Amino acid sequence: PSVTSRFRLVLCLTELGAFAEAIALGKEAVQIAEAVNHPGMLATACRSAPVAYLRKGDFLKAIPLLERGVELCRSTSYPRLFADLAATLGVAFYRDLIAKTEARLG
User: Is-contact 45 72, C-beta < 8 A?
Assistant: First the structure.
């Protein structure tokens, strides 16, 4: 429950623009899930932690967390989380590519 609660709070804080707080809670969720060594909780934490990074446009910080979550879901049995993480990872890669292209074009 503590990881899921932080996930919901990360979403709310991100919507309010409180990115620093959301990022800190996302990191905390990852630490909690790692401490109990629960793959499902860790996959959920890897889904929540990058939310604020994505909203801020800091895709390079979001991508490793999403990749970790995708790999966790591949190696265990969390198909619903896999779909969500993989889709979000695709969006992060796409948005990073768009941002880099726009920067080059000026």
Answer: no
Asked whether 26 and 49 are in contact (CB, 8 A), the reply is yes
Sign of CA dihedral 63, 64, 65, 68: positive
The residue with tokens 């979550």 is: 69
DSSP string over the chain = -HHHHHHHHHHHHHHHT-HHHHHHHHHHHHHHHHHHT-HHHHHHHHHHTTHHHHHHT-HHHHHHHHHHHHHHHHHTT-HHHHHHHHHHHHHHHHHHHHHHHHHHH-
pLDDT tens digit at each of 106 positions of the chain: 799 999 999 999 999 999 999 999 999 999 999 999 988 899 999 999 999 999 999 999 999 999 999 999 998 888 889 999 999 999 999 999 999 999 999 8
Amino acid at 105: L
